[in-house]
Design a protein that fits this description.
alpha/beta; four-stranded mixed beta sheet; about 325 residues; binds 5-S-methyl-1-O-phosphono-5-thio-D-ribulose
């Protein structure tokens, strides 16, 4: 992704490998500062996934692939390292997909750096194809809504939900995007809006609670990403996605989910079996370290919800736009 800095425009990925270190844009510092973090121990990369230095399913997967690369280079036991890395976060399928893939490649004695770089390149290639397929849905003058961040920051580069918008804008189409702010970690406001601003794409941040208001006024399409898609087409995504899908159905607005094969979990039958990460209540009760909730109040903080397949118009994948009933056949040739 092109990032405007004081020193000019830089071409950056969300996660990469340089000089023996896993490098990542520290997403906790955006949109105000571009801070690059570097790690040379796989356990530190696992911690960076847990504390959301990097986040978003495909970026988590790439960071995990690079963590496996570090583990291999340091001679660590790969079984143990796999478990340590997989323990970082429970919901995004990409984390498990990437660790398992790297484990089997590294067991065959492959070059760890090449294997991890290949993994990251594969994700970027799939996102580019998602952009090509999804951009065909976008027409001049449309109003599109998205939730959380499924842009280049979340996917190494290009994006999943944002890929069709990036591509359509680059092709000269002009449209407007609502980015819902995404309480409590504000990925919509701090990350998606930042990416849209960097690209010059016309947009506005809206409070999460304003989605129905704007959908009633007129939204042509919703595109979100996903953290895990089960065999029947149910999918987990950032908390608040399920509400949007229900309201979209109410107003007859097409609801698309963009994701590469690494996010599909065909071993899990339905969304009911997805483990939903519960994060610290402080993310809800505090803003920038200052408590805003009454001292005596608890908070609950599920990071994701599950939207049933029946509310999905289509999955935008590297293999085209698929209905929930076609995903097994097309994504894993079943
Ligand atoms: O908790 P996060 O920020 O890692 O969650 C990411 C999301 O849920 C995004 O909405 C996204 O769609 C999935 S990653 C492309």
């Amino acid at each position: 992704m092109k990032v405007r800095t004081d020193g000019g425009v830089r071409d950056l990925r969300a996660v990469w490998f340089d000089n023996g270190k896993v490098m990542m844009i520290d997403q906790r510092e955006l949109p105000h500062k571009i801070v690059i973090a570097g790690f040379d121990d796989h356990k530190d990369v696992a911690e960076a996934i847990r504390n959301m230095t990097t986040r978003g399913a495909p970026s988590i997967g790439a960071a995990a692939a690079y963590a496996m690369c570090l583990a291999s280079l340091s001679g660590a036991d790969l079984d143990t390292a796999s478990q340590e890395i997989k323990a970082a976060r429970p919901t995004a399928n990409d984390l498990f997909f990437a660790v398992d893939r790297m484990f089997s490649i590294l067991k065959n004695g492959s070059d760890p750096v090449k294997a991890a770089n290949d993994y990251a390149d594969m994700i970027v290639d799939k996102c580019t194809k998602i952009g090509e397929h999804g951009s065909k849905l976008i027409r001049d003058g449309m109003t599109i809504m998205t939730h959380c961040n499924a842009g280049a920051l979340a996917t190494v580069d290009v994006g999943t939900a944002l890929a069709p918008m990036r591509r359509a804008w680059a092709d000269g189409k002009r449209f407007f995007v609502y980015a819902s702010e995404t309480r409590p970690r504000l990925q919509g406001m701090q990350l998606t809006a930042w990416e849209l601003d960097q690209e010059g794409i016309d947009h506005a941040v809206i409070p999460d609670g304003a989605s129905a208001y704007y959908m009633e006024k007129g939204v042509d399409m919703i595109i979100t990403g996903a953290d895990r898609i089960t065999a029947n087409g149910d999918f987990a995504n950032k908390i608040g996605t399920f509400d949007k899908a229900i309201v979209a159905k109410r107003f007859g607005i097409p609801f698309y989910v963009a994701a590469p094969v690494s996010t599909f979990d065909f071993n899990t039958k339905t969304g009911k079996d997805i483990e939903i990460e519960q994060r610290s209540e402080k993310e809800v009760t505090e803003i920038c370290g200052t408590r805003i909730a009454p001292k005596g109040s608890r908070a609950l903080n599920p990071a994701f919800d599950v939207t049933p397949a029946e509310l999905v118009t289509g999955f935008i994948t590297e293999n085209g736009i698929l209905s929930p009933k076609d995903i097994r056949k097309v994504m894993i040739n079943e």
